[in-house]
Hints:
By secondary structure, the protein is of the alpha/beta class. It is built from 13 helices and six strands. The chain is elongated.
Amino acid sequence: xxxxxxxxxxxxxxxxxxxxxxxxxxxxxxxxxxxxxxxxxxxxxxxxxxxxxxxxxxxxxxxxxxxxxxxxxxxxxxxxxxxxxxxxxxxxxxxxxxxxxxxxxxxxxxxxxxxxxxxxxxxxxxxxxxxxxxxxxxxxxxxxxxxxxxxxxxxxxxxxxxxxxxxxxxxxxxxxxxxxxxxxxxxxxxxxxxxxxxxxxxxxxxxxxxxxxxxxxxxxxxxxxxxxxxxxxxxxxxxxxxxxxxxxxxxxxxxxxxxxxxxxxxxxxxxxxxxxxxxxxxxxxx
Length: 286
């Protein structure tokens, strides 16, 4: 569940505020870096929220920007302190996509397109185990179990009684036919997918093969939106060794338009359930 203090979101909000102060001062990131005798990349990482920021960093930046209102400085210093706290995911050790987990934990809604597999938030434990083991053949059992545990903990947002994550998933037909862990396991996974699709805050649509080329042909992506209006939406694209986060309004708009086209081309909710049920029957008889 979302904690009261989400360090990832705190860093992001603090970074946006520091960028605003820099722009009000009319300075470039390079100029600030020269003043503080640090690299320009450090200033950029602080502003985009990808790097932990210390209270000393905040103090130094406020000095450069000549912020003389102590209330503003104190507020930013507190945000820096909060941003260094640990989220629930830190208890699992080093997680490669911890930035994404922090964003997802605080998001109000998530739109995801998956071309190859069932989305992580809709996976059964057995499916997740088989999928991760197959995707990471050099990983040992402890690492696989850790990743599965984190994935299941993330699903708490979908199953929450209070303010659950609003999830919209468009899934390519290929994900339903890819036999992960055996046919019985796949049958159970698809039955679970149908079950979750009936939750009022979860929408699942299948994009069938006969739709041909479509806007998601280049691969998986997700769009996260947040309850606080000051937090801009984020497009997340998962990579093998590194992930991509797009936050510029123009980039988010392009991916949002692409997603609307995917929704329009996919089967509607009722058609999707019937489609999945037919595939379940095949797994039962084969």
